[in-house]
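Section 4.2 – Deliverable D4.2 (structural model, holo form)

The reporting period included a commitment to supply a predicted holo structure for the target in complex with 2P0. Inputs used:
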Amino acid sequence: RAGASGELHAASQAQPNIALIKYWGKRDAALNLPVVGSISITLESLWTRTDVRFVPGQKQDRITLNGRGEEAESRRITACLDLLRQRAGVDYGARVASRNNFPTAAGLASSASGFAALVHAGAQALGLALSLAEQSVLARRCSGSAARSIFGGYVEWAHGQLADGTDSVARPLLGADAWPLRVAVAITSTAAKQVGSTEGMRRTAQTSPYQSAWIDTQEADLSRAREAILARDFEALAQVSEYSCLKMHALALAAQPGLLYWNGATVECMHRVRALRQQGVPVFFTVDAGPQLKAVCLPSAIEQVKAALRDVPGVLDVLDSGLGEGARNIAA
Ligand code: 2P0
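Output (structure tokens):
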């Protein structure tokens, strides 16, 4: 939308997604093409809200995150804005103000929601009539997992076959309301992680002896998860999701130097979740490239799961979310 001074402005919200069948590894680092497909759930109550304003005559991008000048991610954000500017034939800078209502860069998928919201708002501001699939492709180029946060509910990001990556795109498998699982997130540290995902994936591909086994076994996991989701088979989804999570960490642990994203509380939470499931509570865990544990459960179990995680020494806080929608406009 153009303002009086020719400024182009829009604002969007997107939520993090949690991979149940994990993405780890790139076959093309420039285009961010993955070595494996992945399946995720998009959360509801954790969000990124991003306001983008392209300002004629402004040379550089000006970026704030939670009200403070953003430096760590500024090059990636400018590279992402460049993709949008190229499409629109615009060459001036943007003011980007982004807020998260959850800890940034600690394995809570802030890059997924952040880049999905940035692409969605930026495309709208520039008047680009992009389909959600086209937005997913652009979001993927900014951060792989952001491709999935364009959509809500249960989402699959395809490996794709084309060299230009236009078919490595996310698509919805099932709506959030069709199977409303809940997610409890045990926060065990709010420190930024030491090795980011991009570097972690690069090191893994170069040094882990399990890389080829990881790639070879992914297709079977994707099929099992897809079938479990479409059949709303919680136990089947629990088994394949914990398997994919632990297999991804085994792969990364075997890199040199090994990537150890867990702390003691993360491991203790895994034991608690498994003990609950053995007692018949419908819950499973997953862990990403950071020390937080995500427990996914049926709605009836959420209070019991939260209480059990709060009880684990070293757990600082437990967040709670349902499944939510994809990226969308908000009042600018
Ligand atoms: C995932 N993770 O599927 C996996 C599981 C972390 C563990 O996607 O380099 O921030 O921007 O493509 O998407 C985190 O990696 O990495 C991630 P880039 P991204 O959710």
